[in-house]
Amino acid sequence: MYSFDVENPETVADAVAALGQDEAQALGGGQTLIPTLKQRLAAPSVLVSLSGIAEIKGVSADGGAVVIGGGTTHGTVANEAGAYGALAALAGNIGDPAVRNRGTIGGSLANNDPSACYPAAALGSGATISTNTRSIAADDYFQGMFETALDEGEIITSVSFPIPEAANYQKFEQPASRFALVGVFVAKYADGVRVAVTGASEEGVFRWSEAEAALSSNFSAEALNGLSVSADGMISDLHGSGAYRAHLIGVLTKRAVAAAS
């Protein structure tokens, strides 16, 4: 790595001010940024650590939703988001204990890795991502691989997940990293079903609208019979072809519905 300064603000306001410096970069849990620095793929002159900001940590239930501070670790979500069981289970299966005790939900959503788990939970739940300046609906937040609606210097302060009637997340793991080769999050609400897919598309996380329509009429695995996802635009790499990933979407969606039911 190379030399850089580190600032440790204790409030969101101080963090925003620090990020206003030239070539400043926010540091959450560091699970993505630190390896990036080691490979010299990024060269910020200042790292602004968010780990000391108490106001963006914690899990609470509020008005039919689970609200999670942006600086909350995966391990804390797994242990304290029991009001939304599918979300807690998802968090408990991210990476390994070291990752879960350092990585944060805000960092994951800000990075928007195409194979990360939280984007599927946020999009599948119709979550609202709140920052220091505004609130963003999940449908508007994710804008492509590693791309989000966040502006420069904007900090995720909390994420609100509406609690569904039933939900489940199924992940086919890449065994070395435990990222999702394909992951499917299904959530049933009074006004319909949402199905979000991660790990599969070159465009990042997306909703499978055909499955949503079928499941909104009949919430059963059988409702998905005959439905399939095109392999066009799916990721194809040494771990699996685009056609393989497209096939997994159907398989995992059925499993998620069966488990949620």
Count of helix runs? 10
Overall spatial form: globular
* H/E topology pattern: EHEHEEEHHHHHEEHEEEEEHH
Q: Termini distance?
A: 49 Å
Strand content: 15-25%
Protein structure class? alpha+beta
What's the rounded overall pLDDT mean? 95
The radius of gyration computed from the alpha-carbon positions, rounded to a whole number of angstroms, is 18 Å
Strand order of the largest sheet: 4-5-8-6-7
Number of domains: 3
CATH topology of the largest domain: Uridine Diphospho-n-acetylenolpyruvylglucosamine Reductase, domain 3
Q: How many β strands by DSSP? A: 12
The CATH class label of the largest domain is: Alpha Beta
Helix content: 25-40%
Largest sheet: 5 strands, antiparallel
> What is the CATH architecture descriptor of the largest domain?
2-Layer Sandwich
Question: What is the topology?
Answer:
Blueprint lengths: L4 E3 L4 H8 L4 E4 L5 H6 L7 E4 L9 E4 L2 E5 L4 H7 L4 H8 L4 H4 L4 H7 L6 H8 L2 E4 L3 E3 H4 L14 E7 L3 E8 L6 E10 L2 E7 L7 E2 L1 H9 L24 H19 L1
Parallel strand pairs: 1-3, 2-3
Antiparallel strand pairs: 4-5, 5-8, 6-7, 6-8, 9-10, 10-11, 11-12
Provide a descriptive summary of the structure in words.
31% of the residues lie in helices and 23% in strands. The chain starts with a strand and ends with a helix. Helix 3 runs antiparallel to helix 4 (85-92). The protein has 261 residues and is of the alpha+beta class. The chain contains ten helices and twelve strands. It has three domains: 5-49, 2-Layer Sandwich (Uridine Diphospho-n-acetylenolpyruvylglucosamine Reductase, domain 2); 56-162, Uridine Diphospho-n-acetylenolpyruvylglucosamine Reductase, domain 3 (2-Layer Sandwich); 166-260, CO dehydrogenase flavoprotein, C-terminal domain (Enolase-like, domain 1, 2-Layer Sandwich). The chain is globular, with a radius of gyration of 18 Å. The model has no long low-confidence stretch (mean pLDDT 95). A five-stranded antiparallel beta sheet has the order 4-5-8-6-7. Strands 9-10-11-12 form a four-stranded antiparallel beta sheet, with helices on both faces. It has helices at 12-19, 33-38, 74-80, 85-92, 97-100, 105-111, 118-125, 138-141, 209-217, 242-260; strands at 5-7, 24-27, 46-49, 59-62, 65-69, 128-131, 135-137, 156-162, 166-173, 180-189, 192-198, 206-207. The longest helix is centred in the last third of the chain and has 19 residues, at 242-260.
